[in-house]
Amino acid sequence: MDTTDGPTPAPRNDIAMLYSFIGLLYSALPPERALQFWGSNPVGDSLTYLEYLESTMGRLPAFLQWAVWSTQVTDISMSTALYSMLAGLANGQQCSELAYNFMARGGGEVIPGGSLPSSCAAGPSVSWSVVFGLLDQWAASNQHGTRTAPRSQGFGGSLGMSAFNNPPPQPQPQNPPIGPKEVLLAQAFLKLLSNVVSNSVTVRIAVAGHAHFRAIPTLVSLIRLGIPLKARRYARPCGL
């Protein structure tokens, strides 16, 4: 038996892959196909057997609730996959409004007309306050990191002091740059935001007019960040 130690395989994260797959799947399907994830039934009287069975059991909303509450805020990879799934499930006007209400409960304004049950609320890691809070924190961290220390005065400075008599300026602390994982998380944030505001005018007005979210200043501040253009392009269709 060969006991030679081989390379350690990378740890698997099947749950995150499942979330990402669900997001990609429902992004490719026609709009409003994810209504039962949000606790609503498809429009029309003709339901398939699986749709009827789901309407009586409610397993999809329970799965979505479990996915939210089992994801920790500090787990960036799982949060990215979760928000990618939510972005795919927010495909269609009604799904976008239900997705907005899902993330707004407990910390934002719920728009009227949503049929999301009151028991189906977002967890601590999923809310509009978390999304805009992190985006604003990254933008503010970048602004502080780019500040430069004041220059020392030269030979013609005040009080006749030369540059040789002045102590060298202390370097200002630099905030750590946004890493690749944070870029993917921001991309998932912006994709979800882009989907909900593009599919529903009501959601667009609610997000743009919410004073606590500060959506417009936050999105504008992201322009100065050194992140790939692929992540920025999701902010363009927001229409805010």
Outline the fold blueprint.
Layout: H1 14-28, H2 49-57, H3 59-69, H4 76-89, H5 93-104, H6 128-145, H7 180-199, H8 201-208, H9 215-221, H10 229-232
Structural commentary:
The structure is a single chain. The protein is mainly alpha-helical. The chain is built from ten helices and no strands. The chain has helices at 14-28, 49-57, 59-69, 76-89, 93-104, 128-145, 180-199, 201-208, 215-221, 229-232. Helix 4 runs parallel beside helix 7 and helix 6 crosses helix 9. The longest helix has 20 residues, at 180-199. The protein is globular and about 55 Å long. The model is unreliable at 115-119, 146-164 and 171-176 (pLDDT under 50).
Average pLDDT metric: 76
Order of helices and strands: HHHHHHHHHH
Strand content: under 5%
Oligomer: single chain
Which structural category fits the helices and strands?
A: mainly alpha
Low-pLDDT runs: 115-119, 146-164, 171-176
The radius of gyration computed from the alpha-carbon positions, rounded to a whole number of angstroms, is: 23 Å
Main pleated sheet:
none
List how many beta strands DSSP finds.
0
* Beginning-to-end CA distance, first to last residue: 64 Å
| Count, helices | 10
Shape: globular
Please estimate the helix content: 40-55%
Entry summary:
With 240 residues, this protein is an all-alpha fold. Helix content is 49%, strand content 0%.
Keyphrases for this structure?
49% helix
